């Protein structure tokens, strides 16, 4: 039987309408898994070190065998928006190649939205929890380090089993095989807002 995504019930107290730029319209923290959430591969299986970047080429690394590693196309602008809104960004990955994942984030160069210098992907991440194990542990660590309440966290991940973090109060948005894009990002935000009983007023 196909597994169903958990549905979000209508908020008990109804909705409170806020302006899009009201801080209440945004979670304090957005977390991303890495494999098949930000890039379309398993870094511990599909990438053979060493990895390198050719010059200042944007959003592309290449491994020893010529395999490319890039963020999904709309990911750089999503990260940039989160930074502009001063939202805490976290990486939560259970890869068995944590050092390689960190190295990739440190090498990957992304376009600057504000016309400044290009930025290394790693600079967008305020917190990184990258090691094997249950994602409950990753989120407990994120909470411990940041003090941010779980119900202020929105998490993007492609694996159904990681919905277990919702038991802490985190909102998880399941990422489809096409990866993270603007449409999915907006779906995640809607899901989080619905749980908080918040609706954004569109004039
Ligand atoms: Mg994944």
UniProtKB/TrEMBL annotation:
Taxonomic superkingdom: Eukaryota
Record-annotated membrane-spanning stretches: none
SUPFAM superfamilies, A to Z: HAD-like (SSF56784)
Entry GO MF terms: acid phosphatase activity
UniProt cross-references to Pfam families, sorted A to Z: Acid_PPase
Name of the featured protein: Magnesium-dependent phosphatase-1
Originating organism: Kwoniella dejecticola CBS 10117
Source species taxonomy: Eukaryota, Fungi, Dikarya, Basidiomycota, Agaricomycotina
